Amino acid sequence: MRRITLIKGDGIGPEVVKATVKVVEAAGAQIKWEEVDAGESAINEYGTVLPQTVIDSIKKNKIALKGPVGTPIGDGFRSVSVSLRKKLNLYANLRPIKSLPGVKSMYKNIDIVVVRENTEGLYSGIEHEVVPGVVESLKIITEKASTKIAKFAFQYAQKKNRKKISAIHKANIMKLSDGLFLQCARKVAQDYPKIQYNELIVDNTCMQLILNPHQFDVLLLENLYGDIVSDLCAGLIGGLGVAPGANIGDDYAIFEAIHGSAPDIAGKNLANPIALIRSSVLMLEHLGENEVAARITQAVHKVLEKGDTLTSDIGGHGKTTEITQEIIENL
Ligand code: ATP
């Protein structure tokens, strides 16, 4: 039995986590879950959104499956997701964007992988008030982290037989910070002559993704651009309810959907569990459980193709529990 840390999270978190655990167990994965609390649900008991028990559990188990976690705005709490990524040095955020059968979207056959730097950039959270009415927010870019994420992207591309990496930037304006990010990517690219490498400005990238997304293969981005562009990419395949993600470091990995805690639909049995179920597929592949992972993917595809229990975000009237049950029946 493999022990895995489980964070239910806030908002729709508990509903989509419950669904995912059911599917993973029904698919035959040998997993023992170790549940810990983080986010708003942890404040009452621990007085913090990120108790030490969470860090200790992930350090012990190495792998976590995580529901979305809310951060109260303006209460002095740092985002749990950002803190976890920094504390555990989960420097690579991987977001595969692949078209799904049965899900209405602008394009067919999209297959893009977003590789986002996860630990610095504007998400370093270093902000201060210079004088009343003027604040400064620092964008930190280091040679070390930029080289690490570029290497991750090229190694991933090589392993998965991908043909092209596009580094996305705004170095025409942020000449030093995005300039350094690009320099590091170019240097790493030289070691991978078989993989095509190009560079594109982030605003143009957004337009190109809407006009002609099939030109893209792997996107390499710093933190903020990666966050925004990956939501845009999720929109190309049917939205946040179906887009999976993973945060990967040298020692630990956390698997979580791109979406947030969606408080507007929380507790109503309306959330689409597929984004987290597909994140669990990434987790099972990471663990080498490829057969179980493939079984879940096939079941999800069958259910989407049939379309009887689709949740409202992808055009149906199904409930979280109904689509989950149908996926289990199709395993
Ligand atoms: P964050 O800042 O944490 O990324 P957010 O406020 O940008 O969060 P989300 O919580 O990700 O946004 O959700 C945006 C909207 O997308 C929600 O209001 C919700 O209606 C919809 N949504 C997100 N995830 C799902 C899901 N799994 N199923 C159905 N709808 C979803």
TrEMBL record:
Keyword Amino-acid biosynthesis part of the UniProt annotation: no
A Pfam family per the record: Iso_dh
Record domain Isopropylmalate dehydrogenase-like: where: 3-327
GO molecular function: isocitrate dehydrogenase (NAD+) activity; magnesium ion binding; NAD binding
Key words, A-Z: Magnesium, Metal-binding, NAD, Oxidoreductase, Transit peptide
Cofactors demanded by this protein: Mg(2+); Mn(2+)
A GO CC term assigned to this protein in UniProt: mitochondrion
Gene Ontology process terms (BP): isocitrate metabolic process; tricarboxylic acid cycle
InterPro entries for this protein: IsoCit/isopropylmalate_DH_CS, Isocitrate_DH_NAD, IsoPropMal-DH-like_dom
Family, similarity comment: Belongs to the isocitrate and isopropylmalate dehydrogenases family.
Protein name: Isopropylmalate dehydrogenase-like domain-containing protein
Origin organism lineage: unclassified sequences, metagenomes, ecological metagenomes
